[in-house]
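From the shared-data thread, chain only:
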Amino acid sequence: MTGHENCTHECGNCGEDCASRTESMDFRAKPNPLSSVDKVIGIVSGKGGVGKSLVTSLLAVQMQKMGRQSAILDADITGPSIPKMFGLSSMAKANESGILPVTTKTGIDIMSINLLVEDKTTPVIWRGPAVAEVVKQFWSDVIWTGVDYMFVDMPPGTGDVPLTVFQSLPVDGIIIVSSPQELVSMIVEKAVRMAEQMNVPILGIVENMSSVICPDCGKEIKIFGNSCVKETAERHGIEFLASIPIDPVIASLCDAGEIENERSGWLKEAAEKIEKL
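Structure, as tokens:
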């Protein structure tokens, strides 16, 4: 407060909105002292069911193949699916310094609520603020060592968790995941506008479920009709990073916990673009 006898004049850590403020309020959570994370990239969408977790996993796998240490912070607390895709069943461990992420077969570090509970089918029935606080703890309490690219798999929408991630984590940019339907383009607009209002750079858009490839003749079938995602990206001056078709092979790998064995390389070019950005 202005003229308050206990004022420390450290405005960055003060929640008071007084006339003498010289710095903006800083809501960022401090990382674990032993952590080292270079880039943080959020994977978002305006609605559920478009494949954020798939895109998150494929990008982490692709970055790892390119020789970059990648990590996944699973911020979808009420619907975690990342551990299943990577075949992780062990519990995360901790020491006096913090929580240790679980490492996959190829060396990707992962933290998810499902790595902290014994029964993976136990539902997380929490209110928004409690969920958001856990996401902050995944950043502050977990020891992330030598991470080049951390991908944050966020829940759908523009609620508590995306807001917490944008305010609390040093997000370098986001990737928006969409599907071809016209309805989804409207939802994409919401995600774009939220990012703009939060001053978070948009690295690009990935379109999932763009089409189906006939296994017999190889013909591409656009089951959702012609896509309007590219037009949406162009309208906002956003890079269109990749299209991913509906592929039964990818679905089988996810179900078997073997997403690291995915060989199609649908997001190779997208990963290269992200690396340049």
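Helices lie at 52-65, 82-85, 128-140, 160-168, 182-197, 229-235, 248-256, 268-276.
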